[in-house]
Every structure is written in C-alpha cells, then in structure tokens.
Design brief:
Blueprint: E1 10-11, H1 24-27, E2 30-33, H2 49-54, H3 56-62, E3 66-69, E4 73-74, E5 86-90, H4 97-109, E6 113-118, H5 128-133, E7 147-148, E8 166-169, E9 174-177, H6 192-207, E10 212-215, H7 249-261, E11 268-271, H8 278-282, E12 293-294, H9 297-300, H10 306-320, E13 328-330, H11 339-342, H12 347-357, E14 363-367, H13 419-422, H14 424-429, H15 434-447, E15 456-458, E16 465-470, E17 473-478, E18 484-495, E19 505-508, E20 512-518
Parallel strand pairs: 2-3, 2-14, 3-6, 6-10, 10-11, 11-12, 13-14
Antiparallel strand pairs: 1-15, 4-5, 7-9, 8-9, 15-16, 16-17, 17-20, 18-19, 18-20
Helix pairs in contact: 6-7, 12-15
Bound molecules: alpha-D-glucopyranose.
The site of alpha-D-glucopyranose has 10 residues, from loops.
C-alpha cells in the first residue's frame, strides 16, 4: 500500500482548461425540490412555492448553489405535475406567476439559481393543444400528437403497468401514443410547429429569469415508431421505451441548446437521459452543442460497493472527459427509492455516500431530504397515490419535532420513519448530525479548488475502499470492516468521525469517510 500508482487506471488532467470548472453550474451543488413535499405555505397539506420561499434561508444556510424544482405548471396531476396543461402558468396548488417571480428574485438574492422542470415529451390530455388535436383529423393541431389508425408497435407504457402505449380515442377515431399514462399524450416532435411552440415555452421562463431547466425524458423527443421493443422490455424496473435513442434527437437538442445559449448568464440544461449506458448517454452532450449536463443513471443504479462504484466512475470519466463533457452525480430523486434505504439503511454508509457525491469530479445533485438522512417512507396500501408507486421517496420533509413536523396540517403523504429525530429542528441543534455533515462537505467543496476540476486518480487501499486523489486532496471512503492505513500522514478537512479535523492521522476507521490534505 501507499503507492499513488494504481491498479485501476488514472484520470490525470491532460486536456488543460476544459477540465476545470469555468461556469457556475460546473461548480454548483444542485438541490432537487419536490415541491409537493418540501414545505407548505398555505396550510392545505401540499407543499407550494410560498413554502419554498419561506425555507430559502435554510437552503442558503445548507450551502446549495441551485434548486431544481419538479414541475409546478398547471396540471390535472395525473402524474403529479409531469402532465402539463399549460407550460406558461403555475398550478394554483403551488401558487401563481407572481409567487414564482418572487421565488426567483428571493433565491437570486441569496445566490441560489433556479432550474425549472421542462416536460417536452408529452403534455396533459387536458392541454388545449391536445383538446384541439383530438377533435378531428383536419384541425390545425391535428398532427401535433402521434395519431395512427392502428397501434404502430408493441410499446408498453412506463411504470410497468403492462398497458399498451397506444390508446384509442373515440372522438378522433384513432389511437394516440403515450409512453407514460394515457393522460400524458406524446407530442409529435417531428412537427416543426411543435418544436417552435415548445422552444417558446423555454423562452417564456428564460425571459422571467430562470437559470435553466431539468429536461424530463429528453431522449424521447425523437422516436422510430416502426421499431418494436425487445421482448424483455416489460421486465425492466423503471424504464422508458428503448427504441427512442435515435439520431434525430440530436438536431433537436441543438435547437434547444441554441435557445439557452442566446441568453446571457450561462443558462443550463440538464437532461434526464434515461439510458443505462454511459456511452449512449454521453452522445447527448453532442460536441458541446447539445445538453450542458446529463444525468448519469448507470451510477444511480450501481451497487454501493467499492468495485462497482469504481467501475462506473471510471467509465463515466473515461467516456465524458475526452469529449469535454461535464459529468453529473446523483444517488436519489423523486423516481427511485431513497439511496439510504437502497444501501441497507446504515447511517455510516449514508455518510460515506455523501462524501463521495460531494467530492467526485462533476456536478452533484442532491434530492431533498437526503441531507437529513431520510429513509424511504412506508406508505400504507390505502395511501398509495402514485401510478408509478414512487410515494415512498416523495414523503414530506420533517421540519420540526412534534405533531405535523412543522407542517401547518397533516400533509398529503405520511412522513418518513423517525421523523422527529430526522427533522431539521433536531439536526440543526446537533453538530454531529447528517445535516451538519452535508453542510460541512459543501463548505469544504466550495473552498477547495482541487474539487472543481475533472481530475481524479485512484489510490489503491484495498478492494473495499474507494480512495482517490483530486489534485492534492485525498478522499478515502472505507467501506470495509477493518481500519485502513493511509499512504502518509494527512490532515482531514472533513471526517465522518467527529473530532479528527485538523489533526494528523495515518489511518481511517471501518465505515468512515475522510477528505484530507497531506500534513
Ligand atoms: C420522468 C419523471 C417522472 C415522470 C416521467 C413522465 O421520468 O422524472 O417523475 O413520471 O418522466 O413525465
């Protein structure tokens, strides 16, 4: 042990400036707000924009640089906002345009950027465009959606319902395509007017001052309808129609990119490219002219084991860095069970995961509540509301100790387990809490320029230890049950075992994380 040479290959900086963060979104920690469950400002049991505004000071204290807010547009809520009936208005459940203007201004006043969630693949079946389109076969929007006399392929809807992705519409006398619920008809992106109309919705929000967008299932905006899905499609956990990773998507992404780039201030796009292969995902960055960022789903689904993580991280860096593409790292979101629970529930592992997420080369995305160490909520059968059964990760944030946990009334879903102990109030008081651990890691990240590059060199400290150097900074994530000796004497900037910061150490305890510089 003790050698910097590695058996895992290295990621030394070789391409000069491209590997160092030069924009805010390359340096940022982005925090996903699932607004229904974040904070309730009007007391109706559902979180809203006012609630978020009231908690901005907390997010500033925590140290996040940007928030991505899951959809708040007008919606019948069949898919909890991912079925949009008006891209240019706020659903009354969440507030109104004046409230979001205030949110953007108040966030900016605290140096927090605001990303909205743009849902380009489909609208709600209540969107005026669809109401018009379904009327007959000759109306001006007749071809804005995907209509066929017969189901054109074997595609099933997402969420594993086993339902065909085609539904017959009596009024129009044809089938329409919906990769998700029947209430979410797919737009026909082959139609130039659809593209223009959707780009206008981006401009609407860019003009209002938003800093960018998370782009929902963006790989689906081009499709080969004549290709059937492979036979095993229905057995996939949470998937999207795989016949959609097609070349026509790229010119469309370039049009989207040029809209964002025509605005000042480095507006950003981060795509939900739900493809479980880094190589295919990488193509969505284009040559710096498509997505700015793309979510890394193979990493989300990695086993929480040093060898698997090392493999996924290496592959991501090997594929993205030569393209000059900036990686993202995410462990949880509103669609997957919380990673704390997926990794077995252990608090020490959750602390290691946080140290990893906040020290990897690229932009980390946190999902609300992971900084509280929340477990997946157990939802009684009669309270399940999501057609995709994702309620457990969407449970409300516990803000306070006691009844309703800081919510004005009983919220729409049950709280996660041990909500008092996991509450913001309880953890704020406890410097040793998960909340303080996340905050401290973000502070270290912010003031450590070595963490703002794409430089990473593996350090071999044993099979169950994920260890890497970022410039002169050593990160050791000991996932084993034995103490590991370090290559030399180091001084922790952050240590999951309290009291070690600033001291000289030569080893890392089992299930502990250390971010350190040489003594
Ligand atoms: C994305 C969203 C998910 C939604 C689906 C349909 O995967 O993250 O929540 O149900 O798209 O819009």
């Amino acid at each position: 042990m003790g050698s910097d040479k590695t058996m895992f290959g290295s990621h030394a900086a070789t391409e000069g400036e491209r590997l160092v963060a030069s924009t805010w979104w390359q340096r940022a920690v982005v925090y996903q707000v699932y607004p229904r469950s974040f904070a309730d400002g009007n007391g109706d049991g559902v979180g809203d924009l006012l609630g978020l505004i009231e908690r901005l000071d907390h997010l500033a204290w925590l140290g996040v640089d940007a928030v991505w807010i899951s959809p708040v547009f007008r919606s019948p809520m069949a898919d909890f906002g991912y079925d949009v009936a008006d891209y240019c208005d706020i659903d009354p459940l969440f507030g109104d345009l004046a409230t979001i203007d205030r949110l953007i201004a108040d966030a900016h006043a605290r140096d927090i950027k605001v990303l909205l969630d743009w849902v380009p693949n489909h609208t709600s079946d209540q969107h005026p465009w669809f109401l018009e389109s379904r009327r007959d076969r000759t109306n001006p929007k007749a071809d804005w959606y995907v209509w066929r006399d017969r189901t054109a392929n074997n595609w099933l809807t997402a969420f594993n319902s086993g339902q065909p992705a085609w539904t017959y519409d009596e009024q129009r006398g044809q089938y329409y395509l919906h990769c998700f619920l029947a209430q979410q008809p797919d737009l026909n992106w082959d139609h130039p007017q659809v593209q223009d109309a959707m780009l206008d919705t981006l401009r609407f929000w860019l003009d209002r001052g938003v800093d960018g967008f998370r782009m929902d299932v963006i790989h689906l905006i081009a499709k080969h309808l004549d290709e059937d899905d492979p036979a095993d499609f229905a057995s996939k956990k949470y998937s999207h129609v795989p016949a959609n990773d097609v070349p026509e998507v790229h010119p469309r992404l370039r049009r989207i990119r040029s809209v964002l780039d025509s605005y000042p201030g480095d507006r950003v796009s981060v795509g939900e490219v739900y493809l479980l292969d880094e190589e295919r995902m990488a193509a969505y960055y284009g040559s710096g002219d498509e997505l700015h960022l793309s979510f890394n789903f193979p990493f989300v689904w990695s086993q929480f084991r040093a060898d698997d993580l090392r493999h996924r991280i290496s592959r991501t860096l090997d594929i993205l860095r030569p393209r000059g593409a900036w990686p993202t790292w995410v462990l949880s979101n509103h669609d997957v069970p919380r990673h704390r629970t997926r990794y077995g529930g252990d608090e020490a592992l959750a602390r290691i995961a946080a140290a990893m997420l906040l020290t990897l080369p690229g932009t980390p995305f946190l999902y609300q509540g992971e900084e509280l160490g929340l477990h997946e909520a157990e939802i009684p059968h009669d309270r399940i509301v999501d057609p995709g059964l994702r309620d457990g990760c969407r449970a409300p944030l516990p803000w306070a100790i006691g009844r309703h946990h800081g919510w004005p009334s009983d919220p729409w879903l049950p709280f996660p387990p041990d909500a008092d102990a996991h509450s913001v109030e309880a953890q704020h008081l406890d410097e040793d809490s998960m909340l303080h651990w996340y905050r401290h890691l973000m502070q270290v990240r912010r003031r450590t320029p070595q963490l703002h590059t794409l430089d990473l060199e593996w350090v071999d400290l044993g099979a169950d230890v994920l260890a890497y150097r970022r410039g002169g900074v050593l990160v050791v994530l000991n996932m084993s049950s034995v103490t590991v000796d370090l290559p030399g004497i180091v001084v922790p900037l952050a240590s999951s075992i309290r009291g070690l910061e600033g001291l000289h150490i030569t080893s890392v305890a089992p299930l502990a994380a250390v971010v350190a510089v040489p003594a």
